Description:
The protein has no helices and 8 strands. The protein has strands at residues 9-14, 37-43, 47-48, 54-55, 64-67, 73-77, 80-86, 90-94. The strands form 2 sheets. Strands 6-7-1-2-5-8 form a 6-stranded antiparallel β-sheet, with no helix packed on it. Strand 3 and strand 4 (54-55) form a beta hairpin. The two termini are 25 Å apart.
Amino acid sequence: xxxxxxxxxxxxxxxxxxxxxxxxxxxxxxxxxxxxxxxxxxxxxxxxxxxxxxxxxxxxxxxxxxxxxxxxxxxxxxxxxxxxxxxxxxxxxxx
Length: 95
């Protein structure tokens, strides 16, 4: 991918969730919600404070993250569905 987000934005690829419940019931694609977990694909350089100093990014490429259901902007790059969002929209890093 040849895309570099600006400032404090990150590019995230959604991780597909399990299509089966704990009880073994298969969930059809039409009933599934969009996953709220993903992997960071690219990060920007960081934001700027009021004095113009660079604030480094906490996230790095490869981090598995959790984000809000309606967070980010959906885009398609090289045939791949991705999300662009500000680092502050990410709820946390999953370990």
